[in-house]
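Listing S7. Sequence submitted for prediction.
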Amino acid sequence: MLTDRAHDSQRLNPLQEKARTLETQVYAVVKEAVLSLKLPPGALLVEDELADQLGTSKTPVRNALVKLEQDGLVVRVPYKGTYVSEVSQQDAEEIFELRGVLEGLAARSAVPFLTDKELIQAEAILIEADEVLAQGNLVKASLLGEDFHKLVYRHATNQRLLLFLKMLDDQLRRLRLLSNSGLDRLKKSAVEHRRILEALRLRDESAVEAAFREHHLSVLNDLVLNLEGIATEDKKTP
């Protein structure tokens, strides 16, 4: 909830003068805060407070929130206010199941076009991810995992498939952060990424596709457990 009592970590920085319109800037800043979980699911978004934090009037904030509502990232509750949208189990299942299928297909079609040099780069990413994970940097490890995925499937021959994957990026980002919030999940991902890399080295297209789908299913299973835990804690809160 964005109030004076809110933790400073949820406060947004004032906007800087740029060529873009204020509305565009407000939209980008609040969207990033939502996707990065700086503004967590369920956070109350008060127009006056957001405008004060960003150094703008209420109008660009109001317009930006309307656009974010269209994106499905915020919800308006009559007579109560505007909130960051919650992440439901159904949301997670639909997005990860779709992502697993699409990314598996994309990776499969990319296999013939991945060079040996790129496979070396892929391994280097995983090595760095292991190193930062050992240092306790979960955010960096998660981002490197994203880099690994994109390096693999960027050569997909179906451009519409890549477009659909890009459309899912925003929705997936919050889910990935929620699922990767613990060390154990990222350790599992490290093992699963190695399986993908081994299938890539063998140039086994079917194995690559299967490994991607299994990885996304594994992440989904842990996310569902995480969401159930959050729901249980919420019920305990008076």
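Caption to Listing S7: primary sequence and predicted structure tokens for the chain studied. The chain has two domains: 8-84, 89-236. The chain has a mean pLDDT of 87.
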